[in-house]
Every structure is written in structure tokens, then in C-alpha cells.
Amino acid sequence: MKAEVKWLEDLKFVGKTDKKQEIIFGAGDSALVSPMEMVLMAAGGCSSVDVVDGLKQLGQRVSTCSAKLTTERRDTAPRIFTKVNIHFEISGDGLDTDIVEKVTADSLQKYCSVCLMLGAGVEMTHSWEVI
User: Fold this and answer.
1) N or C terminus: which one in the chain shows less Cβ crowding within 10 Å?
2) What's the pLDDT band for 29 if we cut at 50, 70, 90?
3) pLDDT tens across 59-87, in order?
4) Mean per-residue pLDDT for 120-125?
5) What is the CATH number of the domain that holds 73?
6) What residue ranges carry the coiled-coil annotation (predicted)?
């Protein structure tokens, strides 16, 4: 895996992957996505993949999955996350709540690479509901 980040102007940058995908981001008062927001979305995306894949592998008929993330950050620099909660809203036909609980917990504790990297210094928690 490779990536490159180039400065465009002011505090505006473009990130490019070796897959030729691009994202423009920024800092300060920019309306663009910030690097910390990208980290947060990466955690939500990574764990959502685990949850949907895990539910499907265990025979669950999942139809929607939304991960809503909330954080707390240090007040002083570096303004790292101190707490992250991922709240999963999942719907489907006849979902087994015991399986939903196991799959969501396993994502944060065993499988999600992003969450596991953050978890070394961040209190990572999850919650879920079947809607």
C-alpha cells in the first residue's frame, strides 16, 4: 500500500493512493475534511466492513448498516482523540441480536485494523441497535 500527499495551496492538500484514488482535505477553518475527520471515517469504514461481512458470514440478512462516531479530544496540542465510540445502526430481516453484539464487539477487539491502531492510546467503545 502506498500513498502520496501534495500541498495545493493555503492549508489545502490532495492525497492520492496507488489505486489512483484522490481525496482533497484541509485544515484550519477550511470547509474541507480534516485529517482527524479522515481518521474517524477510516475507523467507521473499517469497522463497518467487518460488521457487514461478519453478519453475512453468520447467515444474517443485513440490509443497512450505519456507523455513527463520536469522539473526545485533548484540549491541548497534540489534539489527539482520547475516546471514540462507534454506534452501529443495523437493519435486516430477522437479525439475531446475540450475533449483532458479537460481530460489533469483535470488529473493535479483533479485526478492525484502524480501531486496533487507535485503541493503543484511545479508549475505543461501541454500541449498537437493530432498527
Assistant:
1) N
2) confident
3) 999 999 999 999 999 999 999 999 999 99
4) 87
5) 3.30.300.20
6) none
**Same domain for 87 and 117:** yes
Is the same domain home to 100 and 63?
A: yes
Q: Are strands 22-26 and 81-93 parallel, antiparallel or unpaired?
A: unpaired
pLDDT mean across residues, the chain: 94
Query: CATH code at 6?
Result: 2.20.25
87, β-bridge pairs:
68, 127
- Whether residue 29 is found in the same domain as residue 54: no
Burial class (CB in 10 A: 0-12, 13-18, 19+), 112: buried
Range of the domain at 2: 1-33
Residues 81 and 92 in one domain: yes
Q: What b/e readout covers 81-104, taking b as 16+ CB neighbours within 10 angstroms? A: beebebbbebebeebeeeebeebb
